[in-house]
Design brief:
By secondary structure, the protein is an alpha/beta fold. It has 2 domains: about 180 residues, no CATH class; about 170 residues, P-loop containing nucleotide triphosphate hydrolases (Rossmann fold), CATH 3.40.50.300. The chain is built from 13 helices and 6 strands. It has a 6-stranded mixed sheet, sandwiched between helices. The longest helix is centred in the N-terminal third of the chain and has 27 residues. It starts with 13 loop residues before the first helix and ends in an 8-residue tail after the last helix.
Length: about 375
């Protein structure tokens, strides 16, 4: 009679995990429905400003896939200001203009609404020409509106690599811009210098961060051209929240808080990809990646926590256990997010094994980066 296969020590029971995820996920699904409806009911206006040679059109094309060459100027403006709605209802507007200094107050209703309801300004500067006095003056005027402003130093591929750092620092000093509010970019680089746009992830991350307080980051991400890149800051924020929650997403602990975050994360990712998702699909993704990772990240988390003195079902109090639980909660949430991106990219054709492979690779990557920031290994950042 063949031996009965044994589960690895400390591994979570597969069916227990799926059952726990389902029980906690049912309530989380209803909560996430309300949050997503509210997020997508808002209005968002993003302006791209800069001189004609700065690369605004390339930035907009790269980020949103919109060609402003086909959009007529707003009547009444002394410069070529253009406004494009990204959806039929006009909830999300893009503004493309050299600057605000010369725009007349008599612009028509669409232009006036765009100017009066700005959420974010992206000011594009041509690295090849450097910053000018006019750009400094216009940027100062933009700041008086009190909106977050990101300065993109574009066409950085045209600056010699060994000169870039000094050039960027000097340009930001000229413009009076804090480095945290700047991105170094090449939205349309020379093919022989770079096959892909440079700095796009930094631009997306900055805008996402500054829209988070108003709850408009999902509306922004939903209209980005690169869906995987749009999801990355959403995944990072969810992982950070899970880490702060400190709950352990494994049987014998309080799974509810982390499951709620992961359900909302999957629904957000589905919205970005514009793919319908029901409750069973969301809970399938979470249940499959957690229950089947007995030889991967989840098993490591269980073993590490028990070695630190954690007792399943008991209170988490010791600093070492708190740090590890934050690592496990953040890592599993990060892994769930990456697995969901691959799932929707594949037109929902990935099976459990493929999902678990993506999950484990992402969760270990999250742990490695946390370890790099915290060599003591106590899980603190």
């Amino acid at each position: 009679m063949p031996d009965t296969p044994q589960k690895p020590p400390g591994a979570p029971p597969t069916e227990d995990m799926r059952a726990l995820v389902r029980s906690h996920g049912l309530g989380a699904w209803e909560q996430s429905e309300l949050a997503i409806r509210e997020a997508l009911s808002q209005h968002l206006t993003v302006a791209f400003l800069g001189s004609a040679s700065s690369g605004k059109d390339s930035a907009i094309r790269t980020l949103f896939g919109v060609d402003f060459g086909d959009i007529s100027p707003i009547p009444g403006s002394t410069v070529r200001m253009r406004v494009a709605p990204l959806d039929p209802e006009g909830q999300v507007l893009l503004v493309n203009a050299p600057g605000f200094g010369d725009i007349r107050p008599e612009v028509d209703d669409l232009g006036r609404r765009a100017l009066d309801t700005l959420d974010i300004v992206v000011y594009v500067v041509n690295a090849e020409g450097g910053a000018t006095i006019d750009e400094k003056r216009d940027l100062d005027l933009v700041r008086t509106r009190g909106r977050p402003v990101l300065v993109c130093i574009n066409k950085i591929d045209l600056i010699r690599p060994h000169e870039r750092e000094e050039f960027v620092a000097a340009t930001l000093r000229q413009l009076g811009v804090d480095p945290k509010d700047a991105a170094v970019c090449a939205f349309d680089p020379l093919p022989q210098l770079s096959e892909e746009p440079i700095g796009v992830a930094d631009v997306i991350g900055w805008i996402h961060h500054h829209l988070h307080a108003s709850g408009k980051e999902l509306l922004f991400a939903k209209h980005l051209r690169n869906k995987a890149a749009a999801c990355e800051p959403i995944i990072k924020v969810a992982a950070r929240h899970a880490s702060v929650a400190g709950a352990v997403p494994i049987p014998g602990a309080d799974l509810a808080g982390v499951t709620a975050l992961q359900v909302k994360l999957i629904r957000d990712i589905a919205e970005v990809f514009d793919v319908p998702v029901d409750r069973d699909v969301a809970l399938f993704i979470i249940g499959e990646v957690l229950s089947g990772s007995m030889r991967g990240f989840v098993r490591w988390g269980v073993s590490a926590l028990k070695a630190a003195g954690w007792i399943p079902g008991g209170q988490i109090a010791e600093a070492a256990i708190l740090g590890l639980s934050a690592m496990v909660a953040g890592g599993t949430t990060f892994g769930v997010g990456r697995a969901a991106v691959h799932f929707f990219q594949s037109d929902r054709k990935l099976d459990g094994d493929a999902l678990r492979a993506v999950f484990d690779a992402a969760a270990w990557d999250y742990k490695r980066r946390r370890d790099d920031r915290d060599p003591t290994g106590n899980g603190q950042t």
